[in-house]
Amino acid sequence: MIAYRGNVLLSDEIELTAHLATLLRMENIGVLLGAGASVGCGGKTMAQLWEDFKASSPSEYQWLCRNKFVDAPMPPAAPMPTPMPQAASMPPVAPQAIPTPPGTPQAAPMPSGLTAPTPPGAPQPATPNVESLLDTLAIALAEWERAGSIEMVEGKKARAAIYRALVRASFLDESWWNTPEGVAHSEDRLSAHRLLLQRLTSARQPGQSSPWLFTTNYDLAIEWAADSIDMNVINGFLGLHSRHFTPQSFDLGFRNVQAKGEAQFGSYNVYLAKLHGSLTWKEVSGQFYEIQATEAQGEIRSFAKGETDNLAFTVLPSAAKYIQTVGFVLGELFRRYSEFLARPQSALLVSGYGFGDEHINRLLLSALLNPTFQLVVYLPEFSGLEDVSKLPAAAQKLLSLQSPRVTFVGGGGDAYFGSFVEHLPEPSIYNEDLRQLQERLRALDTAPNPNEGGSS
After folding, report:
1. In what order do the strands lie in the sheet with 374-378?
2. Residue from 297, 147, 148, 284 nearest 220 by CA
3. For the residues 61-89, what does the mean pLDDT come to?
4. Cα gap 30→215, rounded to integer Å
5. At 165, which helix (H) or strand (E)?
6. Is residue 25 within 8 Å of residue 203, measured between CB atoms?
7. 43/3 Cα distance (integer angstroms)
């Protein structure tokens, strides 16, 4: 583990955990999660998502390269031939072209605009920012539609293929979608998410607001983890059978009015803002609804398999979609994110986020103008202050401030999502205790009642 607070190296995990314990007791606590937080439960990183797209949709990938939406891979430079030593008395002989014998098959020329398969060892272009790519593609499609361009059809195919890769990357386990029960409390792949929720809420003191979770992920890992431990999630949607987006719900809170003394500690809900949308949000006549996973899974699965090109669910904001919703769903969620960063005595813990969203980055950097704001960033690529040139530009800028209110944790696996959760201080209710209690309650529910049955 490598951890710096400002430009001071933290000695060990105990010192880091002590610092995190102080932050969890601040007036406002929040967590920002990215794709790396879902890898352990079946999600994919942006690089894995892009490789899946290239492998599953090669023609759409070639179209993007041909139209300069992404950089095409460059073949490796051919090695220079070693010249043959020439005798001192003989002048250099110019190389002669060897004629091709009649009947020798010729290599077929590449179709115009296509690139050849990348040879082994060829330099690979960097993984593009998929959100920015879809924004650019949406703008191009709008212009092509206005001009009646023939590229419109291919552009829509490429966009649908990228969306399919996004859905596959966010679907996690298919069996989790099939039953109303959701995910069992014993599901190990969500253990880190459950532990995160428990450790955040158990640290809350009487009168303090519930924790905030901000995420760029579209999957349901947080929701399923919260359901498995009976924790309430306030995500902006209200309703029983028809859950529509109502931002006032973020101003609500839950507490146990009958609890006395130490039992008043902790909170009973978390706020969840999915900054890029969710697999189960659906737009109908300008209104956004949250659909049950069991109801949504059929349409989402058909789209991911290519059986349909239409997906009514909100997966990712494109430029056109953002314009339509800037004052509504996504705009409201970003406003809540910005407001949280500006609150006095606020701390934000970042894990699994690769700084790929410039909007989020700008708000994060401006938050340091808040003199009481504290930031902790878990970034596996961080290996110390000696060389930060390979880190994202926003991370480099944060490190250059050398502020004691900014802590960076790196060191590969020591900065993954699971390690981040383990570094948080222990909650008052432990996973194993809760699991054993639920198992005993379930056994009581299924045990036969000796007082029931026929009488002799």
Report:
1. 8-9, 2-5, 406-410, 374-378, 346-351, 28-33, 212-215, 269-274, 232-234
2. 297
3. 73
4. 11
5. helix 151-170
6. yes
7. 26
The token pair at 340 is 């949280």
> 270-283: per-residue pLDDT in tens?
999 999 889 999 88
Neighbours of 322 (CB within 10 A): 17
Alpha carbon separation from 33 to 28, 29, 188, 243, 438 (Å, rounded):
17, 13, 19, 24, 28
**Interatomic CA distance for residues 138 and 153, integer angstroms:** 13
Helices (H), 249-379: 293-304, 319-325, 329-342, 358-367
- Give 386's contacts (C-beta < 8 A, 6+ positions apart): none
Question: Tokens for 403?
Answer: 């502020």
Query: Mean of the pLDDT values across residues 86-100?
Result: 48
Backbone angles phi, psi at 274, to 5 degrees: -90, 95
Q: How far apart are CA 58 and CA 118, in angstroms?
A: 12
Concatenating the DSSP letter of every residue in 419-454 gives HHHHHSPP-SS-HHHHHHHHHHHHHHHHSPPTT-S-
CA pair distance 419, 118, nearest whole angstrom = 37
Per-residue confidence (pLDDT) for residue 105, from 0 to 100: 40
Distance CA 279, CA 166 (A): 10
Confidence of residue 204 (pLDDT cuts 50, 70, 90): confident
* Residue pointed to by tokens 């934000």: 348
Query: What's the average model confidence in pLDDT over 319-344?
Result: 78
Nearest 5°: CA angle at 46, between 308 and 348? Answer: 120
Q: Give the model's pLDDT for residue 263.
A: 53
Whether 80 has a pLDDT exceeding 70, the answer reads no
Enter the pTM of the model.
Answer: 0.81
Report DSSP letters for 334-364, one per residue.
Answer: HHHHHHHHHSSSEEEEEES--S--HHHHHHH
Q: What does the DSSP assignment read for 106-124?
A: PPPPPPTT--PPPPTTPPP
- Who has greater pLDDT, 431 or 389? 389
Answer yes or no: is pLDDT of 54 > 90. Answer: yes
pLDDT digits (tens, 9 = 90+) for 415-434: 999 999 999 988 644 445 54
- Report the Cα 77 to chain-centroid distance in Å: 36
